[in-house]
Structure formats: structure tokens, C-alpha cells
Amino acid sequence: xxxxxxxxxxxxxxxxxxxxxxxxxxxxxxxxxxxxxxxxxxxxxxxxxxxxxxxxxxxxxxxxxxxxxxxxxxxxxxxxxxxxxxxxxxxxxxxxxxxxxxxxxxxxxxxxxxxxxxxxxxxxxxxxxxxxxxxxxxxxxxxxxxxxxxxxxxxxxxxxxxxxxxxxxxxxxxxxxxxxxxxxxxxxxxxxxxxxxxxxxxxxxxxxxxxxxxxxxxxxxxxxxxxxxxxxxxxxxxxxxxxxxxxxxxxxxxxxxxxxxxxxxxxxxxxxxxxxxxxxxxxxxxxxxxxxxxxxxxxxxxxxxxxxxxxxxxxxxxxxxxxxxxxxxxxxxxxxxxxxxxxxxxxxxxxxxxxxxxxxxxxxxxxxxxxxxxxxxxxxxxxxxxxxxxxxxxxxxxxxxxxxxxxxxxxx
Length: 412
Hints:
Largest sheet: 6 strands, mixed
Radius of gyration: 23 Å
Low-confidence stretches: none
């Protein structure tokens, strides 16, 4: 048991501070801030949808503001990051490579990520592909002409299936990206110093990933931990209690939570500050649907009272909010969502609709903050003209349009 108690609001403050979503640095972002943000989150999920900025770039913008997206690509090419399956496909700090090597050596966990039957039937072809990379250098999927008849959109050509499976098995790594397209190379060329003799034990990996997950979330229930790095749910939920018994984690009680929560000692001072009502979040920003703050939809609901579903795969007539909707974070609360599209050729950032959450009152400060966040995101996209077409409730529309006009040119 513990005598550490937090209000629900203090728990939110702690989570946002740990995620780097409480406030931004006052100075302009630097390349080092990109790497620091990824280390803070633990991983950066990759998604290719580009209605607005692709998710990994948007997740970073939410935290550090205006920055050059090429910095992320450069960090991968410089071996400061690597790509692998974590929460999903993710950029991961290179120092965490040992934590994922067990997955590479035994891809039985991987499901569709490793084409088991296909690879068993094409072992010689896969060996020849590896030899080609060894002799000719890095390759991309588009280097290979498709010879079979194309089927459905997910029906990869054989070389692409081999490249992805060899990547999952750790034989290939992603050397860099060009136009967001993966460039594959041999693991031994990208990490020539790695030796599997240095592989940590499976127990050590589980322990380390649990500690990292709790630290990245800021505060966590045991049932939330496994999802962060996609670990086994049954065994993982027992580990935080053991780590707390050892003193490696702190147990805390949170107002309204029936079960205990856990906090990493690195956040002890932040937790005390939040408990005292200090360090309240001041950031207003837009979030990617794949932001680690909300990628666990149940956690987002429990902590923020925000029920979120991405509707990309929902037929248009059945969508409630829109194709690619961005949650709006305002000073510690998720207050609404934005159906947006960046028209880069025309320089227009289109807000098809802005929805406020039930019970949210649009104050003058919130109006100014949300308008400023939209304008900043639009400028970063290179789409400085903003169109705001609809708002719910409807009486919010003229107020938001007026606020946007003070920040950027608006077409309505």
C-alpha cells in the first residue's frame, strides 16, 4: 500500500509532462529535440497517411513546434534511430536495439508481419535476395519489377514480402528513407558492432520495457503497461507490482481509480509538483490519431474522458467526425477534434469541421489558443491559408473564424 495520493487532475498533469505535452520550449526547436522527444516517448509510431503531415512528423510537431521534418529522416540515416515493430511499426532509439533482438530471433510472435508459409517455400529466393543486397548494396522494394499479376492493394510482390519478412527477422534493417520509402540494408552493415552474445535475458527485457513504458506514460495502471510496447498482457500486468515491491517503481493512489497506479522514480519531483497544484499544463496543440497519449483508446477515455475512434476505414456515410480527425489538446484537457486536410499545392489548410466535446465551454482564451494552434500547424505544413467551414456547436464558428483571422489569412 502507499500513502502517495493524487487528484485525477494531478494524474493528467503528470501524464502530459512525461509525454512532453504540458508546454513547449521557449526557444526554436533544434535537431537534438527530435531525438530527445522520441527518447521521452520511448518510440515514435509510423503511419503513412498524409492527409495532414504523416503521423510521426505530426507527433513531433505537437511537442516541439515548428521544426524541419528532414531531421527525423537524418537521425535514422545517422543510426541514432532504427525501425522495428514495437507498439506498431516505430522509430526506436538505437540504444534500445537489444530490447527487440529477441523478437527478431524468433518471429513466431509476428503474425502477418512475417510471411511464415511464403518464406518457408522461398528460402532459396530469400537467400539470393540477401546475397544481392550483400553484393550490390541497399535496395528498395521499387528496385524490383513486379512479374506476377497484381491482385488486391495489400498483395505485395514477392520481393516486397521477402524484404519485409527479412526485416522482421532482423536480417535486414532500414538504412534510411527517401520520399518516405524504406531503403533496406544488411544488419551487419548498419550495426557492425552488435554481437548476439550481448543479448539480455528475456526477463531483463520485460523488466526494462515495463520500466520504460511506465516512465513514458508518466503514470500507469498495471493493465495499461503491456499495450505500450505490445507485450504479453497476462504476464506483463504482474510486473509493475513486483517492481514496486523492489522500489523500482512507486505506487500511488489516484482519485476515482479503484486500482493503484505506478510512477517511475524519474518523475518523483514532477509528481510532487503536480500534487501541489503546480506546473499545470499550458500547451494547446493538435494531436495525431497515433499519438502515444491517445493510441490506447481505453486509457484516453479513463484519463481524459475522451472517446476516440479513427474512421479511416469506416465507409464515408457511416463516419461520425471524418476521415482523419485530430484531437485538440487544450491546457491539460482534450476539448475537441478537427477534421482537417492540407492542400499543399494550393497552400490551404482546410478545416472541414471542428467539434467541441460535450460540456466544453468555448471561452475567449480557448478560442484564441485553438485558433493559434491551427494557424501554427498550417504554417508548418506550408499551407498558411486556413479555411474553417463548420463547427459544432454552430455558434462557435464565427468566434473561431474571427480568432483565426487575427493569426492568418482565412477563407470561409
